[in-house]
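My current task is to audit a protein record that another person submitted. I need someone to confirm that the token line plausibly describes how this chain folds. Take the sequence as given and treat only the tokens as open to question. This is what I was given:
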Amino acid sequence: MKVLHVYKTYLPEDNTGVPTVIHTLAEGLADDGVESHVMAVYDDARAVPAHLGRHYLHPMRSSLHLASSSFSLQAAREFGRLVAPFDLVTYHFPWPFGDLLYFLHGRRKPSVVVYHSDIVRQRRLLHAYKPLMNAFLKRADAIVATSPNYARTSEALLRYRDKVRVIPLALGERVPPSPARIEAWRRRVGSGFFLFVGSARYYKGLPFLIEAAARTGLPVVVAGASAPSAFEGAAVPAHVRLVGAVSDEDKECLIELCRAVVLPSHLRSEAFGVVLLEAARAGRPMVTCEIGTGTTYANLDGETGLAVPPADPARLGEAMLALARDEALAARMGANARARFMALFREETMCAAYLDLYREVLHRRDGI
């Protein structure tokens, strides 16, 4: 089986949530005889390798960036030729240009849409885009929701509930960081801190985390998001350490050393939060906000961590204090998080579910 994944960004330029999931699928399904390819848009497509692990890349040159989305004239011209040999195409949503590519060249191929998030911020553009979006989702052979929470609370997914399949996100097993590297980070930032890992995006809720840290005096390490715009002018206390972008091994070191991982995202644009799976995989408790998405599917309030109302630094600080003051509670929740990861969020489980869905879609198409 040959499968093409279509998304606006990918590794090695972008190693955030959606590209990480695509990579996990592409590598994980190789053992099941699935030949995976990825088409994505790059500012410098010439610098992108043709292979990444056991799958293939098809980089397209970016022509325009608009409303957090990329467009490529090269992709518009070449997608018909590119898609021809594939048995099935997996479109990762939202990316309006991907919808357009489907209608330009992809309608004859079986299609699965992985619905990662509603469109939250660009309300005016959404009004203009909705006819294309609805036509695209209506024509898709299947739609994947990444958590039952999102399937229940997304208006778009409820509209197409008959074709929605819930397949939670997942990760491969953890590669433990080297003890020497852990000690280097311990000397730099200490241990027992609260860790945020993520990009500097509007929905991440970093100003609320900074205020919670200021209220409580608890040590916080922020990895990845160090742009001033991420904090919306909030003064960063001295006990909040900004360490910038980190490698995968360094991220695992920080998770190893932290008391808990905090994801204060306050808008539905945060549909899941792959960093929560990384925390659970390492046996660390989590603090999240209840926004009706997969963040509180990965993190069950009172079991694997604590969930608080969104945009509420006082409640966020109280949850952090609870874990800081009770080491046994943090350890118990961390163990529960690890057990839940093993039960629901392993790479093998996700890949098997996608393989079943791909076969089902192809069988239905063959029967037409």
